[in-house]
Specification:
Length: about 260
Amino acid sequence: MITGPSLLRQYCRACWTGESLEHIIYPALQTPPLGLNFTDQFAFRPIGSTDAALITLLHTVFIMLDTQPFVRVFALDFSKAYDTVRHAVLMEKMARLVLPDAVYNWIKDFFSGHSHCTRFERDTSELADILASVIQGSAIGPASFVVTASDLQPMDVGNALVKFADDTYIIVSAVNSDTSASELRHVQDWAETNNLKLNCLKSKEIIFAGRGARNKTVTFPSACLGISQVRSITALDLNPLQGYDLSYMMGRRPTPQQFEH
């Protein structure tokens, strides 16, 4: 319900942003400055999709399995990611993008001047400034989270990251298995800096075994930081039905055709 002109102001801004993102902000993501990387992000971009993210993830796993007995994939969950992004940190990263000054100032103004209060029966609390969160229902909100996550990179060059919005996947080969704990702690530190929280209880790990796993015994590593291991599968077992498990991790659902085949 619209109760005043101030609510109309925010709605109109979101519409204007939606029409302009593709022509102004998205091109800036193609030439990021040093320290920001968007090549591992597949959400809210013209060439990104869940299919592209899933294909990239599996391709990376298979390439590693050519020379390694197993590969670890950590599917990470951030608690209320969109609600906790700190505006100051976001705008520092926005300032590093090649954006027109007018657009940067508009985005900064878009996130400024918001407050909230709580009302219970006849009592109303004092107004508190909103210094974190991106508006998920607006066009600028998802793109803002993509910028926020752009400086999260693996510590070890032999590991890989695949991102789809706030869904983040760390891919670690067997030879780097000992770096898994340090990679997860690195993500925790990054999350704390950006006012996010890694939820280890909801995060999952899946282990892919190489083709020779059926013919010899492979010792799989134990869980890290309380993240539960879903299962271990061999590369030869990746049929469409079992592929659904990975699709579910990417936030997708199976189609009727997947079950028919």
